[in-house]
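Training component of the fellowship. As part of building independent skills, the fellow (R.M.) carried out the full modelling exercise for a liganded target. The chosen ligand was acetyl coenzyme *A. The inputs are recorded below so that the supervisory panel can assess the work.
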Amino acid sequence: MAEETAEIKVGDKSIELPLITGTENETAINIGKLRAESGLITLDPGYKNTGATQSAITFLDGEKGILRHRGYSIEELAENSTFLEVAYLLIYGELPTPAEYETFTKDITHHTLVHEDFKKILDGFPASSHPMGVLSSLVTAMTAFYPESLDPNRSKEAVYMSIVRILAKMPTFAAWAFKNQMGHPVVYPKNNLDYCSNFLHMMFNLPSQDYDVDPVVSAALNKLLILHADHEQNCSTSTVRIVGSSQASLYVSLSAGINALWGPLHGGANQAVIEMLENIKADGGDTQKWMDKAKDKNDPFRLMGFGHRVYKNFDPRAKIIKKAADDVLEKLGVVDPVLDIAKGLEEVALKDPYFVERNLYPNVDFYSGIIYRALGIPTEMFTVMFALGRLPGWIAQWKEMRENNEPIGRPRQVYVGETERPYVDMSKR
Ligand code: ACO
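Fellow's submitted model of the complex:
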């Protein structure tokens, strides 16, 4: 069959470019030779319509609200699997066999303890430090403790160890970032606990008060982490891939991803949603007033947790999380007035022409903060929780990029600044 092509006409010159079709029939124009043949580049601020890679990890159909990892639907994974099972699936491409799962979880469990010198680094951070900044710093510091990880071209076994170590130690770093903020002593990991329970143990145990992990809380955390595990080429994942494309090591690529996630338009939205809902509550709970603010183009306020670059129908993760929020609050007997405000806002927004016309629906972060709050996790830790969940996705995407031998990421630009002009001496300015 002849290769399908697209034709671009510029003036009277016509350039034929190959079409690439993915396994879900998504088609792209491969513009690789456009510049060589025409001198033209494409311009797409925010990469709204630009594919940066061919990936086999996550499929997302924003119009139909579909999200699948390696072919498995997010609904089935969230219902049936553990977070480490999903991590293995994302990173290695298949659901693990019982033997593979046992080895993977055992390896991770045995590396949860971090070098004592990490405590010295942690001690240098004032209690006012945002835990996201502490987390990204500690992940970068991994390069100092495991210098062999600096070379991403080392053996498969070495890369495996780097992956195991970071999956094992991120919950420890995350919990310790919180302890640092509280001014409390750090709690060491316990190897007889599963991944989520161990994190909760390190977060909430105090020398003055034992903390028994509630299985309801642990199961809810497992679900939340799965729902955040990967989301193809979003801002932080693209950051991880682009940093890694310079052959920077796994740990620094991940640290860059953590920083990219921090912003309120991305992972920072979960913190921003709760702060917004609290503000609305303190302001008397008038949802219409805040809706009007969100629609006012002269007001910078946006309805946080609403809208998504890709989902234009609904975010399947938001659907699962909304139900989980109801279940968790009921099971834990928590009454959170902010949940009613959130539901009220959603109800009004889904009928409002401004939101309907722009396809703005609740995203994954609209309800996740409410569950985190019910689990006892403080607001500034919400984005850290997102980072814990997204970690396997970042690792899988970094590994795929390396294995595909992708070239260094280096976009072009259209220059719109001054044309050449003579230097003006300081005395004449
Ligand atoms: N509240 C009010 N208006 C909004 C919102 C919102 N939350 N989101 C988008 N809009 C409006 C824009 O003003 C714009 O209107 P216009 O066409 O009249 O100018 C239109 O909808 C399109 O918005 P863009 O910003 O162009 O869409 P984009 O795809 O660039 O942005 C984003 C997506 C960043 C998620 C945006 O919807 C937003 O800021 N949402 C709030 C922050 C948030 O919840 N982020 C988390 C995203 S999910 C995640 O990262 C895990």
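The panel noted the following from the submitted structure. The chain is about 50% helix and 5% strand. The chain has two domains: 5-51, 71-409.
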